[in-house]
Amino acid sequence: MSMREARPECGSPRFKKNGHIHNGKQNHQGQSCGRQFVVDVAKRVIDAAPHSVVEHLFCEKISLHGICRALGVSIHGLRDFLGARFIAAPDHLHVQPIASSWDIILRCLEVEAEELRSFGQKKATAQWLWIAMDKQTRHISVFSVGDRSRDRAKQVWQNIPEVDREQATFSPDQYAAYLGVIPPGQHKFVTKHARTTSHSERFDNTRRQRISRLVRSTLVFSKNVVNHVSAIRYFLCYYNLTRTALLV
């Protein structure tokens, strides 16, 4: 821990106490320049060693402030670190395609409005998570977050790899938005008794247990859609890498 002896901007050693900042540290104000600063300049940054630990904790439904308390890092440093990880997460979700796998489960996953809250607790804004899961490998090849319209279903269909769109058999639920989007020859209608979508329905439970933003009646909501989508994509990348390790 290092202590400042002078105001860094003006260089004057004359300053006074001026309340406390958000983390409880004593705040000061320079008497000559009027600028505010903290004498204790120690920063709780994320070192290289716990990077993997932070990633594991984040994907195990640990809140951001919980990670800060466990590892002794600042919330600002953690947000910057996760923001960089969100940007680096690839759009292909680390999917490893298998040539012999043509069974795809396509499903529109409905989530409670309060679970996917965005834009500062605005209840009128509901986000829906659409996924496409490979039945053999359990990889999530495509996801989309948005409304529950036919246009969104078309977007999900266009994002599916071309080889799957040409040869795979799709087993969605009986939601009307899929009609006319999936070619009739590849569209396998599923009833409640068929249980063909059991793998994707099981993943519904996995995402609720592993993504704190999607837990029912949670306080860990997303304040904007960008962070919401980025956090889900980051978890899906992590999930697919875990599945790949199990298949090797």
Structural description of this entry:
There is one protein chain. The protein has 248 residues and is an alpha+beta fold. The chain folds into three domains: 1-42, no CATH class; 51-88; 103-247, Nucleotidyltransferase, domain 5, CATH 3.30.420. 33% of the residues lie in helices and 15% in strands. It is built from seven helices and seven strands. The chain has helices at 51-58, 64-71, 75-88, 150-159, 162-167, 198-210, 225-247, and strands spanning 15-20, 26-30, 36-38, 103-109, 128-134, 140-146, 169-170. A four-stranded mixed beta sheet has the order 6-5-4-7, sandwiched between helices. The protein has a three-stranded antiparallel beta sheet with strand order 1-2-3, with no helix packed on it. The protein is elongated, with a radius of gyration of 24 Å.
User: What's the count of strands?
Assistant: 7
CATH architectural category of the largest domain: 2-Layer Sandwich
Shape: elongated
The arrangement of helices and strands along the chain is EEEHHHEEEHHEHH
Distance between the termini: 46 Å
CATH superfamily of the largest domain: Ribonuclease H-like superfamily/Ribonuclease H
How confident is the prediction overall: mean pLDDT?
76
Instruction: From the 3D structure, determine the CATH topology of the largest domain.
Output: Nucleotidyltransferase, domain 5
Q: What's the domain count?
A: 3
